[in-house]
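Notes continue from the previous slide.

Worked example: a multi-chain complex. Inputs as given:
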Amino acid sequence: MFRLEARTSTPAWFNLALPLLAIGATLILCSGLIALAGAGVVEAYGVMFSASLGDSYAVTETLVRATPMIFTGLAVAVAFRAKFWNIGAEGQLLAGAVASCAVGAIPMPGPLAMLLMALAGAAAGAAVALIPATLRVKFRVDDVVSSLLLNSVIFYALMALIEGPWKDSFSGYPISPPIEDTANFPVLLEGTRLHLGVVAALVAAPLIWFVVARTTLGFRIRVTGENPEAARYGGINVERVLISTALLSGALAGLAGVGEVGGVHFQVMSDISPGYGYSGIVVAMLARLNPLGVVPAAIFLAAVMTGAEAMSRATGVPAFLSEVIQGTALLAMLVALLFTAYRIRRVGTAK
Amino acid sequence: MSAVLEQIFQVGFLAAIIRIATPLAFATLGEMFSERAGVLNLGIEGIMLLSAMTGFTAASLSGSLWLGVLAAVLTGALMGAVHALFTVALGLSQHVCGIGVTLFSSGLAYFLYRLIFGQQSVPPNIKGFETLPIPILSGIPVLGPAVFNQFSLVYMAMLSIPLAAFVLYRTPWGLSVRMVGENPRAADSAGVSVIATRFQAVILGGALMGLAGAFLSMAQFNAFTFGVVSGRGWVAIALVVFGRWDPWRSAGAALLFAFVDALQLRMQASGLGHIPYEAFLMLPFIFTIVAMAVMSRNAVAPSALLKPFRREER
């Protein structure tokens, strides 16, 4: 006989083992779809791996792809720690992209432009995140629903801009004018797209870890998330913590948009984000809401995305497999998290 | 202003409201059943998309629209069961599971659609449902052609509202659903299986979401596109809050939303000056957010919403 038993603590190696377990289960489950498409499972995953992590150029491409998801992953991780259910990272990213694009189009010295782009993007993302947080604190409106609905509002606002005042009058395409050349983020490795934003993301992760784990604000965020009653009893202004969390979370998501404008696209178009905001939720959960874990989790998803495109070209398996993998990985991770709450014990008969 | 009023009372406008409201009504009732049992289903957006895809595919391959509807309903029910497995049986976070179900279902819908139909410059379409005028009733001036000359799925949506109210308020099963959503501990003591009832409610909800998807790809657009749902699932979640978890009010909320949506389509078509059409597209979403803020004071969510039930934990 087996029995489920509540666990009081989990060993540290779980932080690594659970995501790996979830990812392994995901790849096994999704191999069924590869077989259904009539391709060899080993071959398909092989192409995926070599195209995303197989050589140094592929690695830089994967890092570029991971950058926005590191930012949205951090945004979601911080928010979920306080149980502020920010599902709006997608809209906050778009707002950040638009704001940084507007600033980047103004002629000024490069370093100043980049700094102002980052500030504007972060501010725009924070402003968007403030809406669901305020609605929750002041009007008790469910933050999940309001932050979700705002994604659509922001998307249409972006469309209105690029099909209206920002429309390329020369080509007629719905794309914004490009930012100034001097505002383009410098490329760090000749012949690659590895830009300054990638480094910013890799620095942001330990920084946010420090904020969450070692500062007063981080302490307040954690207590508010774990036990709002205790937080209130301990003199913490829970409402204010939720607002601060939203501002931090939205700013991080906004920075994801800044990186895409300054380092990858240099302008804004309707498909500037293929759902990086939603992927941030997957990243944050795979990382167990730990900012340091966000980096490898984002790199994994980025590798799947870049790899899926190459796999599709080589084997004919639709590249949408990467979306299925994301969803499956999220669900698999949730199931794997059960092992942190329970353990399976053999009981009875054997004795 | 009088021009606007004139438009509102046109037959075409009334008919458009009802057509727009139909998938929302199915989806909203589906989400309502799930939430009344205590389970938030954020998988709705993906479930509608996957059902729209399977329904379209089944109809297109078999040539039978009703077989397509059946496929969509079964898909919805199956994905409802998946969501219930994670949230009810395993007691995992309803928020995150729902997002997971949506990501998974949309990914699967895109993947299978591309696998079956390949990449085509013009998306394949089917001959969708045709309107079915109801004798006598469709002869009523204005109201007749608008309300009683519709697709059979529209009539199903109209009938499902009183039916949902009856099931929820007048049947023993409906009582069980409300009990497990309000006070699962008491329901358990009274001999109601919390787990089974929640499973049933979420599966029924999924089936209704499947009908919403079927309507979109087989009556409204007669094709499957990646934007076929485009946020309607999220809107349904808001409409449930707006409709205070009641079938009648929720359906009313769907109608109100459809009115705003139809109005924006008209204003868009009439080329109202220089206002970009996107402003009209975002209008329903802004309207919903504002409405939620106004309504939230009176909103009484089921007490056990978002709370997993584990019998051994007392």
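Summary box: Chain A touches chain B through 45 residues (CB under 8 Å). The domain at 2-346 of chain A is CATH 1.10.3470 (ABC transporter involved in vitamin B12 uptake, BtuC).
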